[in-house]
Amino acid sequence: MTRISNSQLYCILVGLLTPMAFLQIPGLLAHLLSQNGWIAAFIAIVPGYGLVLLFNYILQHSQHPFPYLLIEHLGQPLGRILGFIYVLLFLFLTSHSLRLFTDFTETNVLPGTPISIHIGVLILALVLGIRAGIGNLARLMEIIVICGLTFVLVLVLIVILQQGEIERLLPVGSLNYNNLAVATGTNLFIISKLFIVLSFGFWCGNKDEAGIVMKKAMITYVLVIGMTTLSVLMAFGGTITSVLTFPTFSMVTLVNIGNFIQNIDIIFIGVWILGIYGIAVLTWFMACYSLQIILNLHDYRFVAAGTALLVGITSILISSNILELLVLTQVFVPVLYCFFFIIIPILLFLLILLKANRSSSLESKI
User: Fold this and answer.
1) What is the pLDDT of residues 48-105, one digit of tens each?
2) HEC per residue, the chain
3) CATH superfamily of 6-365
4) pTM
5) pLDDT tens readout for residues 191-210
């Protein structure tokens, strides 16, 4: 069995959580809470820790990785059917990531280029990545996360020192608590993608340490999104940030180092492409691996080529323009996260807990 280190698991989890949220979440938080959007970003650490405990409990009380653990706990018919639904979910999330990247590129970098060109090139790279295997994917995610976190840290510090004005965060604490709950929930839905640890946690040297790794990844995500939201708000203020389509990208264009180094947005695009590649390759890998288990296939690598056409067509047909895609991203996708990555794991947790209590009661009677 392929093994990955704890640091590689950490990079896999951070690489799945952060890149997409880094571009989108600050603007959404500002739209809901204006200058206090950063508060919701940091508050998410509380329910996020609850999800870490939830996934870790399921992981420690399962003998097989996802999706086989569905069969283990739910039985053959229901477990396989639900596993196949998860396959479709991961394929959809892969298509969604590709289309979001394509529309962002079309809008801000290469207008006029057919989206089929972008999607086709990325799909080819993703298929090659999946065929390389888990070990190579884990090493690739280490590179992506190191580059990404370094860039984010430097960017945030430069923006806060050059463009940041703390007065733009005032007044602090004038919150609409309904919007605060929605904003915190939005962050929680992103954190729920830690769900993939139910597969990758079994490939660690010691799955008992997966909970600690999840906690570190969750804290890293909260700090990155919190500091990014804080820097965007200090640069633009709550009102302007809430109307920008991609405020993080707009923040990058403000960077000016020594009145000499400007227009570093091309560096941002390069790093972000790595991040989107990481998200897409992980979700597509989860779809291929799940399909292998559900259909009792010999290997998952050839499944990527077989599903490439489905991913490509779905990416093109998922929306007609970027506005529809943003609505889909902010309304429909969070519902999927909530149901498949939060509600179903909670039900699975309750089922495992019930079985454990029942077996312990039987042992006490004996």
Assistant:
1) 999 999 999 999 998 989 989 999 888 888 999 999 999 999 999 999 988 888 887 7
2) CCCECHHHHHHHHHHHHHHHHHHHHHHHHHHHHHHHHHHHHHHCHHHHHHHHHHHHHHHHCCCCCCCHHHHHHHCHHHHHHHHHHHHHHHHHHHHHHHHHHHHHHHHHCCCCCCHHHHHHHHHHHHHHHHHCCHHHHHHHHHHHHHHHHHHHHHHHHHHHHHCCCHHHHCCCCCCCHHHHHHHHHHHHHHHHHHHHHHHHHHHECCHHHHHHHHHHHHHHHHHHHHHHHHHHHHHHCHHHHHHCCCHHHHHHCCCCECCCECCCHHHHHHHHHHHHHHHHHHHHHHHHHHHHHHCCCCCCHHHHHHHHHHHHHHHHHCCCCHHHHHHHHHHHHHHHHHHHHHHHHHHHHHHHHHHHHHHHHHHHHC
3) Amino acid/polyamine transporter I (1.20.1740.10)
4) 0.91
5) 999 999 999 988 887 888 88
